[in-house]
Amino acid sequence: MEVIMKSKSRKTAVLSVIILLLIMQLAFLNERKHEDNKTSIQLAERNVQDTSVSDKDAAYTEEIISTELNVVYRNTSSLKDISQEMEESKVKSSYDNKVVSYTLEELIIYSEPDLKSEPVGIMYSGSEADVLERGEEWSKIQSGKVTGYIRNVDVLFDSEAEVIASVIGNKQAKVNADMINVYAEADDSAAVISTLEKGAEIDAYEENGNYTLISCDNGFGYISNDSFDVSYNLSKAVSMAEIEAIKEEERAEAARKAAEEAAAQAAAAQATAAQNAIKQQTTTRGAYTVSAEELHLLAAIIYWESGWEPSEGQLAVANVVLNRVFSSRFSQNTITSVVYAPGQFSGVSENGVPSARFQAVLNKSNEELNLRGCYDSALKALAGENNIGDLLFFINVKKADFTKYKGYTIVNNHCFYTY
Predict the structure, then answer these.
(1) Better-predicted residue by pLDDT, 245 or 58
(2) What pLDDT was estimated at residue 76?
(3) Which domains does the chain have, with CATH numbers?
(4) Cβ–Cβ < 8 Å for 163, 7
(5) Which PROSITE patterns has this protein been placed in (predicted)?
(6) Which SS3 state, helix, strand or coil, does residue 30 take?
């Protein structure tokens, strides 16, 4: 705001000086004309016929120099000519007819140039807008989906806006010519390293004379300053409707996260309670006698599904198999039929026979299977040791959907459950 006030004061002072000088010139010219008339009368009385004007008189002009604006103009110039010359001397900016908000607070955009009118949007600090109409105190702007009025004291205009934009933004060049060359150096006689089509947007850096350094597919190069428009990718205004929609999304997201957190806490509490309850249970199942082949098969499926798990996890998998053998929910009532049931143990069976990969596990000896403790876990389960109760299924705990389970417990990396 201080910058804007200084600029206005300076321009007002300069114009006042110009007007005062013109008035003084007119008074001086009138006095000179009066003196010329007296001279003419005296010459006539003396019968002097020579009416020629000296070169000094013919070339009479007075130059007035304004050190403030570095503009030289003659006393024969009109105020309109002077103003036009001043305007033409200004440096053109890519941010002509643009503003940048620099307030610490949110800048409200109003429907009318009145603080009592309806707010239609907000510009956050560092946002930019196009100026549609510029007034003395208020200006009409358009930014994003918002069109309305802002107070001039809250924004920077034109070249001043570009200064702040260059500090807070990311300078971008948008090609405005049909096709331009990218030069290896800041010279049109340098090697052409690439070309850019109209509308292409690239990162731009420092200027070097009439060229600007940019980055393109072939690295860094230079393009002519008059071949592109500059932008700094500043944020735009947001409408009141957009603000409300954002707030609603934030409220919904917060509610969703709170619900997920509550569900996770409840599930964790239930899992802990269930696991503690199962740990307190004593084994009530009697020993189950099987053939050597089925014992080997049980050890193999433990190896297949949980060979990397600690012994508690292996025992739990073994008991899932036995629970299905004893459950009325399954038609399979042997270890073999449970293991090879369609769709039960992924990758184990192909067309009712062991898959090649599972066959490789079956080919291991009991000693090899027991290198990971799988054979011992099978023996414990067959002896009646049960750490999951009557649960019938298991899944990786990361994929578990606790809301669907009638009962479950977590053992190591698996969730054991039933519907």
Answers:
(1) 245
(2) 44
(3) 93-167 (2.30.30.40), 170-232 (2.30.30.40), 292-418 (1.10.10.2520)
(4) no
(5) SH3B
(6) helix
